[in-house]
Amino acid sequence: MTEVSSVANTVLTTLDIGSGIDSTKLAQDLTDAVKIPQQKAIQAKIDAAEASISAYGLVKLGVNSLKASFEKLNDANELATSAGTSSDVTKMALSTVAGSALAGTYDFTISQLAQNQRVVSDQYTSATQALNSGSSFDITMAVGTTKSSVTAEYNATVTASETTTLVVGDGTNTVSVASATYNSIEDQVTAIQNGTGYNNLLFTVGLNSDGDGIAFTYKTAGSVSSTPTFTGSGSIHAITNSTVGVSVATPVTGVAAKYTATGTAAETTNLVVSDGTTTVTIASATYTTIAQQVTAIQGGTGYSNLKFTVSANDSNDGFIFQYKSTGAVSSDPTLTGSASSHTVNTSVTGVSAVNAATTTTLNVSSDTPAGIVDAINAAKTGVTATLVNTGTDSNTFRILLSGTTGSNGVFTLSSSPDLGFHDIANSLQTAQDSIINYEGISVTRETNSLTDVIQGVTLNLLGTSASPITVNINSDTSTLKANVKSMVTTYNDVLTLFNNFTSVEDTDVEMSGALSDDTSLIRFLKDKMHAAIFGVSSSPSGSMTALRDIGISVNQYGQMILDETKYDSSVQSSYSDIVTMLTANTSNQNLYETTSKGLAQDVATILGNFTETNGIIKSRETTSISDKAETEDELVKLEARMDTIYTRYLKQFGAMEGLMARLDKTKDYLTSQFETLSKAYDD
Question: I want to staple 649 with a disulfide (CB 3.0 to 4.6 A). Which of 27, 68, 140, 655 is the partner?
Fold first, then answer.
């Protein structure tokens, strides 16, 4: 019995290995033992990439901030502010004083204020009183007056030799030069200039720009009443207009070139009109009148893009080409059509004063005071109509007409029935320009707001003055100093940021050491910034060539410092030179202009190159973003690989659990057998 029990216990103890094991935890623990070290290493790389991305973003922000601080030093108009005073604000007020205003004391007298023309109509019983027995009628309105500084210039083609009398005329005066032999055009010019009565001519005579002809330039500005004449039977003396009728010495307004073209009534081919840039082509058709051709051209595609308008001339036997833009015209208009003649010429002497009175005919469909007001306002001629109820008697309604300010706003009105606008008694105010005397110079303008007399100052004229009005303009350089100080502070902040990113990691400093693996970038930026900022300006002036000349330097730590004593002294003695050194006396410059821009914009341009889309900082940032993405992908792959290992462990432990279950059954069987055997021995 004892022996049986001992053997039974030994066997059962051996088989008593039922699992009792948490196979899921065991599988996870085994997996984690491999996974976690790798996961930590990969996550560390991700964290480093994220820190780099953030750091590059802050580097870009810092460089852009420094760039902005230099851009504030780039605008000459903003480096100093100015203040102005008027000795009589009731007569002259200063509405605008720009930073670029020239400091000084200025004396003015105001002889005349600009004003607009105002007239009223006759009186009417009501707004709806019939003025033409219920029928519509036309009003002809002329607005404006001739004001220009454009002279006509004509050329004459000649040959070098001349053996007869030369006769030059302006329509009123004539210069006759006795027969002689002239071997050159210069000789002919000299002979004419020395001729009796030459100074009385309305034009001067000289050699043309090509040296192969004679130029006739009218002395009086504006349109010309007659074409110059030039005769001499021994050579060709054809008057042309190769300069399109105008020669502009200074920018002007109000004069445009005007051409005429001869034409026949019939046209059975394409019409092609061109201004040298834009071309309008009209498909083949049969036109029986000039008017039909004009209508076809006006309706052609691109007509509105032409530099001139096209219309029929007064006799309806040709065309008029009227340039829209004022001043000199670069090219002659062309008109072609093979079935008829379309020769462009300049029978109106090449110029037409378009700011001479502009005539408009408008139709009044409702012959009432209210209808007249509507028709005039709808025409948009620059004249405004208002219906006024005076309330004085039974005839209480009058039409008030107001033009634009200045002498060019003068207007006349004619109609049948007569509305009374031309009556002297109905004239309330005449159109006139403002006139001031400035430093002995008479200045005339169409407005009472003068922006171009004192640089950077707008003068508002409020009344006439018999005695001088004194205007004082004083400069204030505080803006410049504030912007310089801001730049110094920004530079030092950026430098501190750079140093923190490349230093040994310091837990007390945010993102410390974030770019410790990319010190080359920071070193590159530091070197380039220092070279640009402390270099010589592209527009040095006088003794002001660089920032060091206004008291800016660096200390032993690389920090920028401002010597305010030296700065104040340099500003006091050389302010204009400082402005030139920083700005090249320009404002609102484009970063990439090739012209000299001054030190401030030179630096801003270099800094901008660092932060632009293809700049070095963006390149580094892009690389870090790519590295982070690749590392994150590596982490995903690790997770997938560890999931596979974990699954394999679970399968292995599952098989082991199956073996254990089978061993348990064996154990139970043997336990039963040993118990039976034991009983048998006991019996």
Answer: 27
Residue 10: phi and psi, rounded to 5, are -60, -45
Q: Which of 60, 26, 20 is nearest to 497 (CA)?
A: 60
CB 110 within 8 A of CB 93: no
For the chain, helix (H) and strand (E) counts, in that order, are 10, 32
Q: Is 544 exposed, middle or buried (0-12, 13-18, 19+ CB in 10 A)?
A: buried
Burial 361-384 (b: 16+ CB within 10 A, else e): ebebebbbbbbbbbbbeebebbbb
Give the three-class secondary structure for 83.
Answer: strand
Q: Span 548-576, mean pLDDT? A: 90
> Based on the number of CB atoms within 10 Å of its own CB, is 133 exposed (0-12), middle (13-18) or buried (19 or more)?
exposed
Residues in the chain, overall count? 683
Backbone CA torsion sign across 118, 120, 121, 127: positive
Q: How many other CB atoms sit within 10 Å of the CB of residue 426?
A: 19
Burial class (CB in 10 A: 0-12, 13-18, 19+), 71: buried
Let me know the angle formed at the C-alpha of 207 by 205 and 208, rounded to the nearest 5 degrees: 105
Q: Specify the pLDDT at position 15.
A: 44
To 10 degrees, what angle do helices 519-533 and 23-71 make?
A: 10
CB burial of residue 460 (10 Å; 0-12, 13-18, 19+): middle
Measuring CA to CA, which residue among 71, 93, 73 is closest to residue 84?
A: 93
Give CA–CA dist 414/138, Å, rounded.
9
CA distance 258 to 624: 67
Query: How many CA atoms lie less than 13 Å away from 581 in the CB half-sphere?
Result: 24
Which ranges constitute the DSSP H helices of 584-615? 598-611
Strand order in the sheet with 118-120: 384-389, 397-402, 118-120, 427-429
In this predicted model, what pLDDT tens digit does every residue of 603-643 receive, in sequence order? 988 888 888 777 787 777 777 677 777 777 777 777 777 77
Q: Residue 182's pLDDT is what?
A: 75
pTM above 0.70, yes or no: no
The pLDDT, as a whole number, for residue 469 is 94
Q: Which helix (H) or strand (E) holds 379?
A: helix 369-379
> At a CB cut-off of 8 Å and minimum separation 6, what does 342 contact?
261, 262, 263, 319, 335, 336
Residue labelled with tokens 């460089």: 63
Place of tokens 């006396």: 585
578 Cβ neighbours under 8 A, 6+ residues apart? 480, 541, 544, 550, 570, 571
- Of 42-51, 73-82, 444-453, minimum mean pLDDT range: 42-51
**If phi over 0 gives left and psi between -120 and 50 gives alpha, with beta otherwise, what is residue 630?**
alpha
Considering only residues 211 and 428, tell me which one the structure prediction assigns the higher pLDDT: 428
Q: pLDDT tens-digit profile of 79-97? A: 766 778 999 999 999 987 7
Question: Taking residues 593-602, what's their average pLDDT?
Answer: 74
Is the Cβ–Cβ distance between 130 and 367 less than 8 Å? Answer: yes
- How much is the CA Rg of the chain, to the nearest whole Å? 47
Among left, alpha and beta (phi > 0; psi -120 to 50; other), residue 218 is: beta
Q: What letter represents residue 275's amino acid?
A: D
- 558 Rama sector, left if φ>0, alpha if ψ -120 to 50, beta otherwise: left
CA dist 465 and 88 (Å) reads: 9
Residue by residue, DSSP assigns 5-23 as: HHHHHHHHHHH-------H
Looking up tokens 């210039």, which residue turns up? 153
